[in-house]
Write a structure and sequence with these properties.
- The chain has four helices and five strands; from the N terminus they run αβααββαββ.
- The protein has helices spanning 3-10, 28-41, 46-65, 103-111, and strands spanning 15-22, 72-79, 83-92, 114-119, 129-138.
- The protein has a five-stranded antiparallel β-sheet.
- A hairpin with a 3-residue loop joins β2 and β3 (83-92).
Length: 142
Amino acid sequence: MDSSDRLITDSTRATSTRVRLDADLSQVVMLRAVAETVALIAGFTVDEVADIRVALDEAATCLILDAVPDSQIYCEVSADAFRIRIAVTAVCDSDHPIDTTGFGWHVMHSITDHLAAEHSAYDHEQDGYPVTITFTQVRRLR
């Protein structure tokens, strides 16, 4: 658990939601809607919400494009008045579906405060590699 997780978990006004959808590009709009709603309730500005949507789009699209057929994508969104943390997980065909030197990763890295990708070993039950992209966006207090 990193410090941003601990702060969100300890907050008395934290909101957390989990969504599981088919790993299909048509479902990205649903993930965006959930994250946007949580961010707005937590008090993020419209500009901050736009950055969160862009980062989530990139993360989810990257994982969906390499997801094993007929699988699902999982998304957990946790937020409080200071930050939002989003973790997107899918079971992928390849062990490293994320190009950390590519434009999409660069965009996510530029608009988030913390970005990480976790690759797990091949899971025979799920017939693929579980991969999670996690990012945190800190609210800019004015």
